[in-house]
Inverse folding.
């Protein structure tokens, strides 16, 4: 099945002002395409968490969302600095976010857990000092 | 419960009004952690929060929440109101505490939404 790019956008480190714009644009696109609301909701939550993850924790990165007849795939790639312990990072409540981020309502230690919960399939490539790549799929 | 009844019950001041006061609200979620809203919110509900930054609106946009109540009399900045208007999300302000708001609503018959369990 052929994949089409729905959205591809660079995300700047620490850009809280524009944070969420990619996910918001995606939600509009999915609505116009007539994607079922439950699927759209899951995809946009996954995208929003990954978008904020890049803004909060990485040196900057990019989000790409692809659609095919079977699934919507969200790819989040960043420039590092990588996750030393992936298993720990997925534990509900575990967070390395600073006070500023927590003051905005993030850093509750649910972000990556949310990505996993709302995806049908998730792969993560990362490691200390490495770039990270998340591929989250939501099936129709 | 009708939105109009909630307005009088917890002394709401309208900030951004999109939906009709006769519309129905069945559940409430009280939370200051946006990832928790994303994690646990399972249905269209009303969010009570002490946070006023635009990411509260973004979070509700992603989870299809149409009503935000700012508790403890905290006024949101203009950018939060502008984003809410753009995204069609209702904003109200209550002078009451989170506890008092939740208590009055629960006593009046509004329930909490069904929460998912952590994986």
């Amino acid at each position: 099945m052929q994949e089409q790019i729905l959205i591809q956008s660079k995300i700047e480190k620490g850009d809280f002002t524009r944070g969420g714009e990619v996910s918001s644009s995606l939600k509009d696109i999915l609505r116009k395409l007539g994607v079922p609301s439950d699927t759209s909701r899951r995809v946009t939550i996954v995208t929003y968490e990954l978008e904020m993850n890049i803004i909060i924790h990485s040196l900057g990165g990019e989000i790409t969302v692809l659609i095919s007849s079977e699934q919507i795939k969200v790819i989040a790639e960043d420039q590092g600095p990588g996750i030393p312990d992936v298993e720990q990072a997925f534990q509900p409540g575990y967070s390395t976010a600073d006070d500023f981020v927590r003051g905005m309502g993030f850093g509750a230690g649910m972000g990556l857990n949310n990505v996993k919960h709302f995806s049908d399939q998730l792969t993560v490539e990362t490691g200390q000092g490495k770039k990270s790549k998340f591929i989250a799929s939501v099936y129709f | 419960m009708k939105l109009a009844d909630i307005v009088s019950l917890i002394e709401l001041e309208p900030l951004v009004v999109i939906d009709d006061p006769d519309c129905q609200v069945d559940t409430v979620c009280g939370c200051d952690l946006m990832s928790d809203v994303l994690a646990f919110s399972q249905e269209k509900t009303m969010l009570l929060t002490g946070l006023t930054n635009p990411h509260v609106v973004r979070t509700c946009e992603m989870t299809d929440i149409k009503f935000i109540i700012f508790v403890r009399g905290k006024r949101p900045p203009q950018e939060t109101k502008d984003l809410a208007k753009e995204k069609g999300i209702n904003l109200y302000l209550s002078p009451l505490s989170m506890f008092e708001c939740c208590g009055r609503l629960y006593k009046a018959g509004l329930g909490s939404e069904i929460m998912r369990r952590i994986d």
In short: Chain B has five helices and six strands. Chain B touches chain A at residues 32-36, 38-39, 49, 51, 53-56, 58-59, 61-64, 87, 116, 118-119 (CB under 8 Å). Residues 61 and 87 of chain B are 7 Å apart (CA to CA). Residues 54-63 of chain B form the longest helix (10 residues).
